[in-house]
Automatic annotation (TrEMBL):
Statement: the UniProt record of this protein carries the keyword DNA-binding: yes
Domain of life: Bacteria
Protein name per UniProt: Tyrosine-type recombinase/integrase
PANTHER family membership: PROPHAGE INTEGRASE (PTHR30629), PROPHAGE INTEGRASE INTS-RELATED (PTHR30629:SF2)
Residues of the Tyr recombinase domain: 203-378
Database matches in InterPro entries: CB, DNA_brk_join_enz, Integrase-like_cat_sf, Integrase_catalytic, Integrase_DNA-bd_sf, Integrase_DNA_bind_dom, Integrase_recombinase_N, Phage_Integrase
Keywords: DNA integration, DNA recombination, DNA-binding
Keyword Metal-binding: no
Pfam family, one: Phage_integrase
Family: Belongs to the 'phage' integrase family.
Recorded coiled-coil stretches: none
An example molecular function term from Gene Ontology annotations: DNA binding
GO biological process, one term: DNA integration
Length: 391
């Protein structure tokens, strides 16, 4: 790389360059730096690169003085000359780089439209981008974002007293964005390979004990005694408990999804993107029959005729009445899986009850209680004992 001598820098003073009398502007060549010019007008001084590519003259603006120093202009010019030597048009290269969108522009114009078509959780992506990412680095061009500000961003998200899982979801979103940009040849590589995933302390396995289940069913069956008047949300909780379905699946259940003759619930799409059928047990059928057929949705909010947006307040009130602590709505699905396994259901059967694509996922939910493990151990002990020869 060309290194200008101190003499070049000392003898060429951009500050002293002026416009000759009677002219509106003038152009000066920087000594010993091929292609670097300074265009001086009464209003400004601008560094320009001029050269020849494929027999044609090319030129481009490098920057304005004093925002750009002479040394910086020389270094850029040197880089451009190296590109010319390799048969690359530096002006085209510059225009290509300058046209690379900012992270916000790329997300809203390219990534999000794709996600809306291909991801059921695209609204989560939008919320996560707006809440955790956009204000911090959204203004930066994709090619200017390196691992350093990304790692700083992860620390910032974590620093707001959020879990490692929340940080990792933001990291996963950024990985998807940069990978897509790489595949579309917008950038040459993704910086996310140098942004480490945090270790997640998974939620403590939580399912209902026999006593808790009895208390919960008592409250659900006598909800008005506990000033819980929303029978529809009570029905939703019962449905979640009885089917192991996801909250969103129950909330969006339509009458048209039901085959009431064969007691089937047909889910055209679920989290895995594949259709599946839920066999409705007798108790689930009874819950459904209590609901009004006035609306398209089985568990419709009568105020809007649409699904409920949030059932957490009523759910929490039910838990308080049943004296159950540290239990989430999603734990009802976990509880369903645990009860199935502990009552002798094969893991493959539980996998299909929950609609998992892989039994590995099911294992996360299927908690074997100590008494189940103890009984299995005693059974094996008895089998071994029976083989022991009598003395």
């Amino acid at each position: 790389m060309f290194k200008p001598s101190n003499a070049v820098l000392l003898n060429f003073d951009v500050e002293r360059l002026t416009v000759p009398s009677g002219k509106s502007k003038a152009e000066y060549s920087v000594p010993n730096v091929k292609g670097l010019k300074v265009v001086v007008s009464h209003a400004s001084k601008t560094y320009m690169f001029r050269g020849v590519f494929d027999g044609k003259k090319i030129s481009t603006t490098l920057g304005k003085y004093p925002e750009m120093t002479l040394m910086s202009a020389i270094q850029v010019t040197d880089e451009y000359q190296h590109l010319l030597a390799k048969g690359i048009n530096p002006v085209d290269q510059k225009n290509k780089v300058e046209s690379i969108p900012t992270l916000s522009s790329y997300f809203h114009d390219t990534y999000l439209p794709f996600a809306k078509i291909n991801k059921k959780s695209w609204k989560d992506d939008l919320s996560r981008f707006k809440n955790h990412i956009e204000s911090a680095i959204g203004h930066l061009q994709l090619n200017k974002i390196t691992a350093a500000p990304l790692n700083d961003l992860m620390l910032q998200i974590k620093g707001d007293n959020r879990s490692n899982a929340t940080v990792n979801r933001s990291r996963a979103l950024l990985s998807s964005i940069f990978n897509q940009a790489f595949e579309r040849e917008v950038i040459d590589s993704s910086p996310m390979s140098r942004v480490k995933k945090l270790n997640e302390q998974n939620h403590i396995e939580r399912y209902l004990s026999d006593d808790e289940l009895c208390r919960l069913m008592h409250v659900l069956g006598n909800h008005k005694v506990y000033q819980i008047d929303n029978e529809i949300i009570v029905g939703i909780i019962e449905m979640l408990l009885l089917t192991g379905a996801r909250k969103g699946e129950v909330l969006n259940l339509k009458w048209s999804d039901l085959d009431e003759v064969n007691h089937l619930w047909k889910l055209e799409e679920n989290k895995s993107g594949k259709p599946r059928v839920i066999q409705l047990n007798t108790e689930a059928q009874l819950v459904i029959r209590k609901m009004s057929r006035k609306y398209p949705y089985v568990f419709a909010n009568p105020t809007t005729s649409l699904p409920y947006n949030d059932i957490r307040k009523t759910f929490q009130k039910i838990l308080e009445a049943a004296e159950i602590e540290n239990f989430r709505i999603h734990d009802l699905r976990h509880n369903f899986a645990s009860m199935a396994v502990n009552n002798g259901c094969d893991i493959y059967v539980v996998q299909h009850l929950l609609g998992h694509a892989s039994p590995t996922t099911t294992q996360r939910y299927a908690h074997l209680r100590q008494d189940t493990l103890r009984n299995a151990s005693e059974m094996l002990s008895d089998r071994i004992k029976s083989a022991r020869p009598s003395i």
